[in-house]
Amino acid sequence: MASDTSAGICQDVAVVILNWNGRAFLQKFLPSVLAYSDGAQVIVADNASTDDSVAFLDREFPQVQLVQNGNNLGFCEGYNQALATVQATSLGRFRYYVLLNSDVEVTAGWLRPQRELLERNPRIAACQPKICQYEENPKRRQAFEYAGAGGGYLDRLGYPFCRGRLFDTLEPDAHQYDDARPVAWATGACMLVRARVWHELGGLEPAFFAHMEEIDLCWRLWNAGFEVWYYGGAMVYHVGGGTLHKSNPRKTYLNFRNGLALVFMNTPAGELASVLPTRVILDWVAAARLLMQGSLADFQAIVRAHWHFFLKLAYWRKRRRTHPPRLRTAQRPGVYQGSLVWAYFGQGKHRFTDLPQRQLT
After folding, report:
1. What is the reported pLDDT for 26?
2. Measured distance CA(41)–CA(64) in Å, rounded
3. How far apart are CA 83 and CA 32, in angstroms?
4. Average of pLDDT values for 143-158?
5. Statement: the pTM of the whole predicted model exceeds 0.70
6. How far is CA 49 from its chain centroid?
């Protein structure tokens, strides 16, 4: 689909890029966002960068609106504060927001069909496109990207995965996931969301800081009676790990702490008594495995993650009461009713299509 910027079909959309010391990414990827966003307002929310990002934007991209957070608030609160500012200063003219990572290259037709999908179905509150790995050589862009791939899923224990990505195994994109369908979660690397619903649900969980935050938001959307979709007819390319590489123990800490909080806040009462202890046990199995592999820093990160989760249990209980779980596992689309850990490590199922399709909702 060709770009139609002059028509301004997406003038009610704010494409918001959260930036922290990402001047190189802005220089590389902002031109594609400006070229292919069909009249949407492009906004960069700067998280108190210490590089020359702000001066660079003022000089090279004066058409981009700049929102400046006073501190590095992380991904979650950085977006919460930025979108509150956008809402207050735009007089409500934006009906949709796009959360877009600074290390994403968009393509022609990436935004308009997603917006049209939400226009046709008012129950859909969030959507993501197909996400593949960015490579400098376009001919090498053949694999799905870790964060989102062909749409986000969860297993019955709350472990996230994607069509096109199970744990660290990435499939090549052979157009096998070019459809549109409901999913458990849409990636925060490129998520279109209704502005009204975003503010009604309070945006992202601030205590997460980063990682798992979009899964929590989407789980809350389902519990609130909305839907989350994947639209495979639109494509973006994601570098990934631009701020925090997956090998960084800080990322291990956030993933394991937030993973427990995600399950605790969103799993219905009838299932939580079995799901949470099982998650704790499997996390310790993962920690032992990392220790035996010589990854002492990651082992220590998991220990800290569990310690800090339980120290903050009163807070997680309060958040659970704020957005009470409503849907059982079998009632939510995008859920694998088995254990992904067992399927992947115990049965050698490394592709989405290897999973028993009868166990997928």
Report:
1. 97
2. 8
3. 22
4. 95
5. yes
6. 22
DSSP codes of every residue in 221-263? HHHTT-EEEEEEEEEEEE---SSS-TTSHHHHHHHHHHHHHHH
Amino acid found at 60: E
Bridge-based pairing state of the strands 124-133 and 190-194: antiparallel
Q: Are 39 and 15 in contact (CB under 8 A)?
A: no
* Per-residue b or e along 12-31, where b marks 16 or more CB atoms closer than 10 Å to that residue's CB: bbbbbbbbbbbbebbebbbe
Helix residue ranges, H only, the chain: 23-35, 53-60, 74-90, 112-120, 195-201, 213-223, 249-266, 269-292, 296-311, 313-322, 340-341
pLDDT tens-digit map of 171-204: 999 999 999 999 999 999 999 999 999 999 999 9
Closest CA to 25 of 240, 312, 279, 284: 240
Instruction: Answer whether residue 264 shows pLDDT above 90.
Output: yes
For the chain, give the mean pLDDT: 93
159 near 341, Cβ under 8 Å?
Answer: yes
Distances (CA, A) of 321 to 45, 222, 262, 275: 31, 16, 13, 18
What pairs with residue 166 in β-bridges?
A: 169
End-to-end CA distance of the chain: 31
Residue 88 token pair: 């207050």
pLDDT of residue 3: 41
Confidence check: pLDDT of 361 > 60: yes
pLDDT of amino acid 189: 96
Hey, CA dihedral for 26, 32, 35, 36, is it positive or negative? negative
Q: What is the pLDDT of residue 97?
A: 98
Pairing of strands 165-166, 169-170: antiparallel
DSSP string spanning 268-325? -HHHHHHHHHHHHHHHHHHHHHHHHTT-HHHHHHHHHHHHHHHHTHHHHHHHHHHS--
Question: What's the full length of the chain, in residues?
Answer: 361
